[in-house]
Fold this protein.
Amino acid sequence: MRDRKNGKLDRLKIDSLYFYNIGPVDITLCRSESIGITGPSGAGKTLFLRAVADIDDHSGNLFLDGKESREFQPNIWRREVSMLPSESSWWFDSVGEHFNNINKIWLEMLGFDYTVLKWNVSRLSSGERQRLALLRLLSNNPKVLLLDEPTANLDIKNALKVEKILTIYIVETESSMIWAGHDIEQLKRISERQFIIKKGVLQAMPEASFF
Amino acid sequence: MHIITLSPFDLSMASILLILLSLLSIQMKLGLARQIIVAGIRTTVQLLFIGFVLKALFAHSEPWLLILIACIMLLAAGREVMTRQKRKFTGWWSMGVGTTTMSISSFSITLFALTLIIKNEPWYEPRYAIPLLGMILGNTMTGIAIGLDRLTQTVWEKRMMIEARLMLGQTWTQAIGDIRRESIRSGLIPILNSMAVAGIVSLPGMMTGQILAGSPPMEAVKYQILIMFLIAGGTGLGTMAAVWMGSRRMFDERQRLSLNRLKKI
């Protein structure tokens, strides 16, 4: 581990990662840092997140707090480096059965109250599913968040709320976040660095493309 | 009590039913006439053949001969399990999962029944060993085939849900637990159903055969109860083992769902 800006420690280190036809990817995220990933549909944003979550095969090394991913039990790695898929899955009947514990403040920030836990999953709208899936993920207290279009089904008001909660979360818990999405303005709001995946290469986004 | 032996003429009389059926099929344009005749001929030839094999086997009570027959039966059953799968495993596993688990459960339960319950001398006497193994194997085969088919199909359909559970930090056994339980249950339902209706709705074939062949009903019933328990044990253990082994195969060493281990349809 080396000191970086503000003397913060590295959280996640991605070292010459290859997956499918994409690579090598070398990115280091320090604590409380977030980056944005964009690129055309089908370019491999989701595949990148899946490789980092170790849910897909890949080569190269991933380090969490200096410890290599293969030194973790697979499920422990995924609990710490946790991915939110763009479409959420629910397997029990009621919402509450999917949660171990729930943060009441976040629940209210996203426009729910405790009664949502008794709701039937089939009653949820796609936006409600997406917000609740995010809360379900955060209730595991992951150290790295891998978010695949986390606000795709939300209106602008709820999207801003989600951005706010996530920004608070990574500051309070010193977590890192990789946010994949299409909205460049949003990526600039939530992250200091942005990257683009195109034709099998992940590279820092050129300034020119903002204008 | 003596046994009324059936002459070839008696069987020909019964076969008139099949001919009648195929004539009706032609009349009603069911397109089954050929199939009915072929099935009738297959039944006759295959059963006559096994009759000769058993006759020869009973004359020479050799353990190696018994093992040979048992292995042939096992391989045929293993192949049958494989062909009944919609989504087969790739490579050796397509036949391996069913055959391995079937051999463990059927052979051990048959051996258990022969040595500890029936206690015939010698234990490999084919008159007991072959029919017992055949009944246990046949039913275990059905349970395993249903259980594995259910497993692989459900995993395929619910891959998003399984991966979502993995992403939340669940282990592979937690992520597939519900599917595994459901698969085992569906494999066990046929034998549980037939145990539930035995004697009321249906008279099991083995018992019927024994009674027709002149055994006292109570003896036939006792054997039937024994067989039912053995079949339930064999089917249950075999299905559990096959579903466990199959579900383990769906994940790699990093507990990633590996659907590339199933053949494409």
